[in-house]
Amino acid sequence: MLRVVLAIVYAASLHDGCKRPLIAFVLAVLFDYVDGPLARRAGPPTRYGTLLDSGADVVFVLVAAGAGAASGRLSWLVPIAIAAAATPYLVATLRRVRAHDPSPRAYSAVGHAAGVCNYALAGLLAGSVALPSPSWPALLAGASGVVVFLNMTAVLQRLRR
Predict the structure, then answer these.
(1) Quick one: pLDDT at residue 151?
(2) Which of 2, 20, 128, 148 has a CA between 20 and 30 Å from the CA of residue 9?
(3) Fold of 2-160
(4) pTM
(5) DSSP structure class, residue 33
(6) Can you give the residue ranges of every domain in the chain?
(7) Is 102 helix (H, G, I), strand (E, B) or coil?
(8) To 10 degrees, what angle do helices 49-70 and 77-98 make?
(9) Measured between alpha carbons, how far is residue 161 from residues 60, 80, 95, 112 in Å?
(10) Which distant-in-sequence residues (6+ apart) come within 8 Å of 33 by Cβ?
(11) What would the pLDDT profile of 6-52 be if each residue is shown by its tens digit?
């Protein structure tokens, strides 16, 4: 749940020269990295732990992308593509959780790559705010294209199943 709070901090402070989005991004990545091993040490996985973890990831990257689009730094296609890919993924994961599937995460290689790139774009966006430079718009545009492509490929792949 801390990643959800960090998403709000990230979005609320997304203005030139502010370091808070970069700090929120680093903390979100750090907590995402350590929460799985900590949860496994605490005991067997809960029915909804996987769903909550995935949901927190989606909230963070979607709020970051939405804030980036609202600020004019990213195209609105980015949060739309992320939402389009995340919705069927979360629905499939929820179905698997409810069915007591031993592997509830609705994993796909393309979807995983999209998720990693979604986080990377949030980091680039935070960097562009914390360390303004004329080279950021081109880099953000290129990274946005990759994110849109991967997320839409994940949607098409899931629809084909």
Answers:
(1) 97
(2) 148
(3) Four Helix Bundle (Hemerythrin (Met), subunit A) (1.20.120)
(4) 0.90
(5) H
(6) 2-160
(7) coil
(8) 170
(9) 27, 22, 15, 16
(10) none
(11) 999 999 999 889 999 999 999 999 998 888 777 778 776 676 777 78
